[in-house]
Amino acid sequence: MGEGAVGIVSAGAYTQALETPENARFVRDYDAAHGSWPSRYSECGWTAAALITAAAEQLRGDLANPARVRDALQNALALVKPPRGPMRFDAYRQAITPIYVTRTQEKDGRIANVVIDTPPAVTQEATWGWWNKG
Hints:
By secondary structure, the chain is α+β, with helices and mostly antiparallel strands. The protein has one domain (2-131). It has 4 helices and 5 strands; from the N terminus they run βαααββββα. The strands form 2 sheets. It has a 3-stranded antiparallel beta sheet with strand order 1-4-5, with no helix packed on it. The chain has a two-stranded antiparallel sheet with strand order 2-3. The mean pLDDT is 89.
């Protein structure tokens, strides 16, 4: 959309404009490899691969026990620093991740979704009271 996108407000779990050391490194490496900034899909793929790699290293190839695999994935979160920021799993193994409210603007000569707010992270359990009211 180019310049026509400037000023649009949206929300998502990742933006290449996050100002963290992990994201700066991810964006730099991705841009060097692909000649463009990463998308939310790029970041999701990287994070999933990093979690699987960390879990596989813990398991040392023993994938026979599903409970051990599940626990290894849970424990892998402490070993991985996703570009999007800290993550955790809720009681149902749903990923709880930061959500960023962004405004599209020019940054470093490119159009980017720049963070303007970060609502608090909530679990699906925390929303059930609202969904199940009255």
